[in-house]
Amino acid sequence: MMHQDDKSKEMVKRQFAQHADKYVASESHAKGNDLALLVAWLQPHSAWVALDVATGGGHVAKTLAPHVAHVFATDLTPRMLMRAAEHLRPECPNIWYMVADAEALPFLDRTFDAVTCRIAPHHFPRPEEFIREVARVLKPGGRFLLIDNVSPEDKQLGLFINKIEKTRDESHIRCLTIEEWRTLFAAAGLTERRGALRRKTYDFPVWVARMARDTKQIEAVEKLLIEAVDEVKQYFAVKIQNEKVISLQVDEWMVLLEK
């Protein structure tokens, strides 16, 4: 009998296999402001070996590649990894691609100088296992840079944004709060060095279509936003014109940690 976590991971693989091309080409993933900050925060060395977990379209791996000796790019979804490799190989010969589960990394202890993971952990069934694995494969003094959407500390706002994400994308598990992440970091022996919380704007039609199966699913997401109470609409800056959602904003956290 398949465990619930295994079912969740199979869902992730199905979803991202179907939409792999969209993620490789995604403007919001390929050109986010956080990519420019990533190198400045990590301050990578040319001799480093880095790991990018759940690489998706490979945008972080591509950003890191010119600054380090090697980047290992892993993803749970073989098709996603193949599309990223096809896209990146001509200009980034020092990236190596491996199918891997973020919660069971196939590497020895103390292998990497740096680990990154961007806009992916909300798909992980057991984020505590992911953080333990990151800490395990990092060298002492190694750096870990995490970027992901986070839930507001307010419980109702947190429930709402996770419901929206789940309605849009069945492979979504949950956006954690910053305090929940900090608890996991402390338990794994990782020390927070720097963090920044920002508001990220989604162009609703583009964002919702990236993972939705059909117009019925898109309409369900839009209905939730339109019918939300004023407090929710204000917090997520939901913009509506002519009874159509134009955009919304979510919280994204970028944090640098050290082992």
UniProtKB/TrEMBL annotation:
GO terms for biological process: methylation. It comes from the Bacteria. Keywords: Methyltransferase, Transferase. Residues 51-145 form the Methyltransferase type domain. Pfam families: Methyltransf_11. The keyword Transferase applies. The keyword Cell wall biogenesis/degradation does not apply. One of its GO terms (molecular function) is S-adenosylmethionine-dependent methyltransferase activity. This is Methyltransferase domain protein.
